[in-house]
Write a structure and sequence with these properties.
The structure holds two protein chains of two kinds. Chain A is of the alpha/beta class. Chain A is built from 15 helices and nine strands. In chain A, strands 6-5-4-3-2-1-7-8-9 form a nine-stranded mixed sheet. In chain A, β5 (155-162), α5 (170-180) and β6 form a beta-alpha-beta unit. Chain B is of the alpha/beta class. Chain B has two domains: 5-161, no CATH class; 224-275, no CATH class. Helix content of chain B is 35%, strand content 16%. Chain B has twelve helices and ten strands. Chain B has a ten-stranded mixed sheet with strand order 7-6-5-4-3-2-1-8-9-10. In chain B, a hairpin with a 4-residue loop joins β8 (181-184) and β9 (189-191). Chain B is globular. The relative contact order of chain B is 0.10. The mean pLDDT of chain B is 94. Classes of the chains: A alpha/beta, B alpha/beta.
């Protein structure tokens, strides 16, 4: 399955403290000619690959700034240019929900979208509008969006970015987020700050592991109540059931599956590489999906899976659930895609210090080559 | 949509207009049961009769002709056990739940006695105080005790209906959850619960407006009220048991020694019971 991260707009109405997108091309919105080209390119790709599907993620910036008409046009373009293949395009939306309207929801439904991914932070002034990050108003607008989604029986879930101010109250944050939405549970991610840490929000891998470790016993004791908290659920499924359907950064298989498309048709590997202007694969006007998907730069990402098990990750018993982590993390830290992700530290600490002692499970998934040595 | 159960006074004209709906008749007068008894043959879809009396339970004279009535008797206190003793056989034959006030400490023991005598019962909360420790003890008895006993509310309702990933409003037990029950008075005015009716906070007029309740702004605000708590970011928003309490004791100043302890234990009991219900037990081989 191919995954398209589509940022028709990078502008956002919020000023979240840890966000990089806000620093980018603020005023560009993809024009309709380029939008049409995307659907033509997707149709080419799907027509040539009859067993393939595309997950098309509307991302931003804030997608709702596009206005409902933009989605209406997109729907018409899909009907016109993907008439035979549209059933193999699955649309997803990532939005902060503060601008969502009934009209947009109606159009999302037409795209078959039943759930929306979002983000939230109960810690004041982390996510918010304007220079001072007015989180009170932001939260009000967010809840209005949530109510509208509930009214339409659409589900929603949040990513929670763990930063320095989160560290004092992991359980409170966990309870807040699971009280806010009892059905779809949070996905905890470590804040990523590669430039200057102006607001002193950066945390170490160990701090992130300890944050997760404070929540994990409560989660494990009450899995029925909090069934899908990440990264716990995926780790448990992988280690206990040996079911390794992992998220992109741990899968080790992102090299030829992902495409980022920006507002001017520029492409890159994924949302993060697009944000950081690395792994640029050229403009959609000049290349087909097939060409972009097979851009030679992707080889170094695939190569990690043979190089890392020989070097940094040799005999690592966590390899099967990590695969060296996100290549972008490695590049942003070491300027080298053939290094393991620094997130490795937090994964190891969390598993050894909390997950394994509490569950009694033991992760033993070394790279294939190490197995042959043993 | 006629999915709400209507809580209303015993008023024949009103009841005639509610003939297509399930109703709970509420009153403060036990004598009204005779009149309702007579009304039973007509087109009355009776869900329950709620009688809130000032009389202690032991002083109520239970009647044989109440046998056909679905009764919820709310009494402030248990009273004298010896006085109740001679009525136990009759009470056990009635279709009844007996509720005692949380205000008096003796009632917690009284409910345990009623339950152990196989009489369905429960605790109700008025404006008086709650003995949180005694209530927790009672909840533990209701949920965990292996001794045969009748249901004690609201514990049994919550534990039986508990879905771990849903919000649960145990005010359903008291006919005060507007997602399921709406209150209507003789003037056909609609309120969201008993307290709202007492405070004259009317959200609609006329029986036909019941069919449009899902688009009523006040109704939807009330249904979504939990989000206001989340926005206020107060202590309840961070409580592990919020989903089963929904900030009903938000006004308490010391939550750590009161509601938070109780509801945390209560949600754990509900989880325990849920696991028991859904566990794949070994089926013993058959003789």
């Amino acid at each position: 399955m191919a995954v398209v991260i589509f940022k028709a707009i990078e502008k956002c109405n919020s000023n979240c403290i840890y966000c990089d997108v806000i620093k980018k091309r603020q005023d560009e919105i993809m024009n309709y000619d380029l939008l049409k080209l995307i659907f033509i390119r997707m149709n080419e790709y799907l027509s040539a690959n009859l067993n393939e599907n595309i997950t098309f993620t509307w991302h931003g910036g804030e997608v709702c700034l596009l206005g409902s008409n933009y989605f209406k046009v997109a729907r018409q373009l899909q009907d016109e240019y993907c008439s035979e293949t549209k059933s193999r395009i699955k649309h997803l939306v990532q939005s902060n929900l503060t601008l969502i309207t009934q009209k947009m929801i109606n159009l999302f439904k037409e795209f078959g979208i039943a759930q929306i991914g979002s983000s939230f932070d109960p810690v004041p002034n982390i996510r918010g509008f304007g220079k001072n990050r007015n989180s009170q108003l932001y939260n009000q607008k967010f809840i209005e969006g949530v109510k509208l989604l509930n009214k339409n029986q659409m589900s929603w879930g949040v990513i929670y970015v763990v930063h320095r101010l989160s560290l004092t109250s992991p359980l409170e944050i966990f309870y807040y987020l699971t009280n806010l939405n009892t059905r779809s549970h949070p996905n905890f991610n470590q804040v990523k700050i590669y430039g200057e840490d102006t607001h002193n929000l950066s945390i170490t891998g160990e701090e992130f592991a300890d944050f997760l470790g404070a929540i994990f016993p409560v989660w494990y004791e009450n899995i029925d109540r909090y069934p899908n908290v990440q990264p716990f659920s995926d780790l448990l499924r992988s280690i206990k059931d040996r079911d390794f359907s992992l998220v992109c950064e741990s899968s080790g298989s992102c090299s030829n599956r992902w495409i980022y498309i920006g507002p001017e048709g520029e492409t890159s590997h994924c949302g993060r590489s697009g944000d950081y202007d690395v792994l640029l694969y050229g403009n959609l006007k000049d290349f087909t999906f097939h060409e972009i998907m097979n851009n030679p730069q992707r080889n170094q990402l695939a190569e990690r899976q043979t190089v890392l098990p020989e070097l940094e990750c040799a005999q690592c018993r966590f390899w099967g659930i990590c695969h060296g982590g996100c290549p972008l993390d490695a590049f942003m830290t070491d300027n080298d895609f053939l290094k393991k992700s620094p997130k490795c530290d937090s994964t190891k600490i969390f598993l050894e210090r909390y997950f394994e002692p509490i569950t009694g499970l033991y992760a033993d998934f070394p790279p294939p080559k190490s197995i042959s040595v043993v | 949509m006629k999915d709400h159960i209507i809580v209303c006074p015993f008023d024949e004209q009103l009841l005639a207009k509610l003939s297509e709906r399930n109703v709970v008749i509420k009153s403060h007068d036990l004598n009204i049961l005779q009149s309702i008894q007579k009304h039973l043959n007509k087109s009355l879809r009776l869900h329950a009769i709620k009688i809130q009396t000032d009389v202690p339970l032991s002083a109520i004279s239970f009647q044989e002709d109440w046998l056909k009535l679905p009764l919820a008797i709310y009494s402030p206190e248990f009273g004298n056990y010896r006085d109740l003793l001679h009525q136990l056989n009759l009470i056990r034959r009635l279709n009844i739940r007996i509720f005692l006030s949380s205000e008096y400490d003796d009632n917690y023991t009284g409910l345990k006695i009623l339950s152990s005598l196989n009489i369905n019962c429960g605790l109700y909360f008025n404006n008086g105080s709650i003995n949180w420790e005694a209530m927790n003890d009672l909840m533990h008895y209701a949920v965990y005790s292996k001794t045969k006993h009748a249901h004690i509310e609201p514990f049994d309702w919550l534990v039986s209906n508990y879905e771990p990933t849903d919000y649960m409003d145990y005010h359903s037990v008291y006919f005060n959850n507007p997602a399921k029950y709406l209150h209507v008075n003789e003037k056909e005015q609609i309120a969201l619960n008993e307290q709202e009716m007492l405070n004259n906070r009317i959200i609609g007029d006329g029986i036909p407006s019941l069919d449009r309740i899902h688009v009523n702004e006040h109704y939807n605000d009330f249904i979504n009220a939990r989000y206001d708590i989340m926005l206020q970011m107060n202590e309840c928003a961070y409580c592990p048991a919020f989903r089963i309490c929904l900030a009903k004791f938000e006004h308490l100043t010391n939550k750590n020694d009161t509601c938070k302890v109780f509801f945390s234990d209560f949600i754990n009991a509900a989880d325990y019971s849920f696991k028991q219900r859904n566990s794949k037990r070994t089926k013993i081989w058959q003789l």
